[in-house]
Hints:
By secondary structure, this protein is α/β, with parallel strands linked by helices.
Amino acid sequence: MPVKYHFECVDCHLEYPGDKVVYLCPVCEALNKPGQPPRGVLKTVYPYERIKALAPPGLLFDMLERDHFLPLLPIGGMNSWPWLHIGETPLYQGNKWTGGRVNPGTDGSSEGQKGGMVEVGSENDDFELFFKDDSQNPTFSFKDRASALVSAWARENGISTLVAASTGNAGSSLAGICASQGQRAMIVVPAAAPLAKLTQILMYGAVLVPVKGTYDDAFELSVQISKKYGFYNRNTAYNPLTIEGKKTVSFELFSQLNHQVPDRIFIPVGDGVIYSGVCKGFEDLLKLGIISRMPVLVAVQAEGSSNLINNLRSKKFVARPSRTIADSISVDVPRCFHLTAACMNEYHGESVLVSDQEILNASLKLSRATGLFAEPAAVAACAGMLKYRGQGLIPAGSKNVVLLTGSGLKDLSAVQSSIQIPNPMEPDLDSVETYIKKHFSI
Ligand SMILES: [Zn+2]
């Protein structure tokens, strides 16, 4: 297949061919220092003028969509793509739900104790609200978009063993996708990763390496493994294809919104790769003349893990140890810091911090008002939207998307403080009658 793309360093702008394994720009990587966000992340560049010529302007997006967006992806065809259903996840209109009636005493939480309706969006809102539910991917997280592309590229290039460092989701994702493709996977995780994610990795047959350390320790070890044994590394941002896989959500959003650009997208941020991926997707459409403006991308971080937002305007990056219930976005040194900062700068990105308590509150609200149960990192995006909404920062008439990046079943322990599983009751009507009356106001 003729190579239809190349890589460009986002820092020094050196170009690299697309037909070889390449991670960070070697020139910039040599200058990187421990504890600092890496320089040398590579951006994938396509021959936009040639792609534009493939169809008349008004028909170009439909043509690309029919072709699985292959002209904008670094693979030759769909034969290498996993047979699992990747992406094409539902986009729900949130304003329809004001539901989730909660009666007193149903749980141990402060939310909903007074009864009444739980809202995340309301028919009274003067803006439109959508939830993009990426927990519907095969391994129940957004990360499948990146894993699928990395795995497909590996297949096309005769690579059979892949390695990744992960807080849990990227690892369980790569393990699952590799299982579906007949590839071997080695996953390096902090030993404290949630049980569900560790279980997934082992069930999919990957080699699990839990390390006594943080995600950042796992990241460094996986790079060393990759360099010594030649395993293809899927680490987020380190492998430029992770950004390309994640950008596909932007194409879907544009399609699902009937060829309209949303005004705001609330994105949970750890390393910043999902943010950069969403930005790259819309940027591709901008370069092709399919859209004429970019959405405002809102980076949402947990207060306890806010190294990206806190360093956006500082001269020297200072990493504080992360501590948050949102494990998927708990990152000390964001690997995609410089590209995310550049995206925010160029396209007027915004940012908001949310506390763990705000995440827990949003988690209950979202589940009860919509039937969507998302993991804490994903709910952080919803908490960010609720904060904007509370402060009147969402303009009337605007279209707003909350990106839900992972299933709540991924981390059940995180929400246990918000609920209370009732004590066992005798299985007779007399025993449960008081309980029923209390909950249903009979
Ligand atoms: Zn460079």
